[in-house]
Design goal:
The chain is 45% helix and 13% strand. The chain has 310 residues and is α/β, with parallel strands linked by helices. The chain folds into 2 domains: 11-239, TIM Barrel (Alpha-Beta Barrel); 246-309, Non-ribosomal Peptide Synthetase Peptidyl Carrier Protein, Chain A. Strand 6, helix 7 and strand 7 (165-169) form a beta-alpha-beta unit.
Amino acid sequence: MNNKLDFSKPLVVLAPLAGYTDLPFRSVVKKFGADLTISEMISSNALVYKSARTLKMIEKSPTEDPYFVQIAGNSVDLVKAAVEILNDVEGIDGIDLNCGCPAPKVFNHGSGSNLLGDLKKLEEILSTVKKYSKKQYTSAKVRLGVNEKIPVEIGKAVEACGVDFVSVHGRTRAGKYKAPVDYDAIKMMKEAVSIPVIANGDIKDYEKAKEVLEYTKANGVMIGRGAIGKPWVFYQLKHGIENISNEKKKEIILEHYDAMLKFHGPHGAIMFRKLLHAYSKGYTGANEFRDIVNKISDVDVMRDMIENFF
């Protein structure tokens, strides 16, 4: 089996983000430079009960190669059943277990970052993924802990399950998305394990990505919220360029818009409004632009607006 992931140079990975990293967005960042794309977080429950929406969420673009699906689950049986369903889906190269999501409904369910408070359970569930998956790769996405930071213990628990790499968001569950990211803790985890570690958390731009790689000596960076409205960060990292022209940005925005329409149909224009809010940030006249696009549902009118504004 050829290795689709090359850790000889830092990997640039798109983080799974609910409501954002759908197929159109992933296809855009893939085209412009991401090494690996990962689906939005999929509940094992929803997968096992064959929800149509969930099956649409794991579809991938033909350009996404390698491609991972991220699952969350709180029981060995459920996770095993979810993995067995994914085994039958073509084109998935790896399964990632979410051990970091801080959302109350996920946490209170016993999955996501809840597993960081019970490393024995984390190991049972992650080992289940590893044992039953027929995909090439297994990975885990973690945080630094629930309330206390225990990066070394978490790293070792994950490594013991035989995964190929771990992605770590440099906050605890209690830190949600507000606390400062602890790059020292990421560095500690990296030093404690022999598997590759991907750094995640507040990596907003090209400079920050470079700095984090240099400081933590991580094997890659995972960018999530920093890519919303700025997916060209992948292009910059891929090509090592600090400045990117407005022309290039416009090309990427239009590419994203067309991908949305292709995947979601005409309703994609309405769905694209929130993305245009992010894309227009920092541009003169952004507020007026947002007010106008909020009222547009026509596919061609929306495209003209984008053409003219950017």
